Amino acid sequence: xxxxxxxxxxxxxxxxxxxxxxxxxxxxxxxxxxxxxxxxxxxxxxxxxxxxxxxxxxxxxxxxxxxxxxxxxxxxxxxxxxxxxxxxxxxxxxxxxxxxxxxxxxxxxxxxxxxxxxxxxxxxxxxxxxxxxxxxxxxxxxxxxxxxxxxxxxxxxxxxxxxxxxxxxxxxxxxxxxxxxxxxxxxxxxxxxxxxxxxxxxxxxxxxxxxxxxxxxxxxxxxxxxxxxxxxxxxxxxxxxxxxxxxxxxxxxxxxxxxxxxxxxxxxxxxxxxxxxxxxxxxxxxxxxxxxxxxxxxxxxxxxxxxxxxxxxxxxxxxxxxxxxxxxxxxxxxxxxxxxxxxxxxxxxxxxxxxxxxx
Length: 359
Ligand code: G3P
Ligand code: CA
Hints:
Layout: H1 18-34, H2 49-56, E1 65-69, H3 81-90, E2 94-96, E3 98-101, E4 107-109, H4 121-124, E5 130-134, E6 137-141, H5 149-152, H6 177-191, E7 196-197, E8 200-201, H7 204-209, H8 214-224, E9 235-238, H9 241-248, E10 254-259, H10 267-273, E11 279-283, H11 284-287, H12 299-305, E12 309-315, H13 330-340, E13 344-347, H14 350-356
Parallel strand pairs: 1-2, 1-13, 2-7, 3-8, 9-10, 10-11, 11-12, 12-13
Antiparallel strand pairs: 3-4, 5-6
Helix pairs in contact: 3-6, 13-14
Bound molecules: SN-glycerol-3-phosphate (G3P) and calcium ion (CA).
């Protein structure tokens, strides 16, 4: 990601004699080091829809943005630096890390805290298998919160889906969020363009309940990279509204409420969401069904009327996923959502989205 020069806070201080300023600076230096970062003022929640939309779109975002879902996960094991790097090379505007925490409180990129189905943790740590209730579901496997980062450094990622290539199984590690941010930054600088990050907090209530809240760690990581600002190329997403509402009080970074069912997107619901979020991330079927005869819904229009951007997930090219209405051509799906007016497209294959948008 290309970072703008950061404006020094001291510019905001009132003018004083220089000796006084030097003494104050010396006296405060030690204390300031011990203080937590000051969060930016929250943004107003009662702005008109047009104003909301205007500030949700930043100058470096094309329309629609291309979001590499879990990296170029159609081509490489998901949530690996190699999957993210390939996505950037393919032309993705944003890379999407889902985030969970390790036992020692480090944010890592995984779709869920159970990692048995996307890594070789079962081979590396056979005795660490356990059973837990996560968000009401009983799940058996290997959980990130039971491993230190040092332990997870010995684990390798595997492809999740049986019908995708397994040529890269066992070759790539599990990255930290900091490493994902560093990759976006360095790849953006190298390519002379902005590469954004689109983190999703996974199971935030569960992680808070075990003393490993994700949100403060996420904000700390963004602040360390100068990304806790309104015009940062960042979207924070969640399926849970409460953590997003709390985040709205702590950051001006753009927030995305994820929705999976049409019933969640009534005009009244969207108006309520617009009080804390800047966008909705919606299941593609909420916009148009898979059948040839399906008629597009009013979700995009209603969300825009509420002042919310609309990002659609998740476009995948394989016949298992592609709706019948596209007759085997994933480019048709990309073109349809672009024509319907979405502001962002999540894709497992960013190269397909790039081609569909003729970029
Ligand atoms: O985050 C958007 C989309 O990725 C939600 O689905 O399950 O892939 O995180 P999931
Ligand atoms: Ca996600």
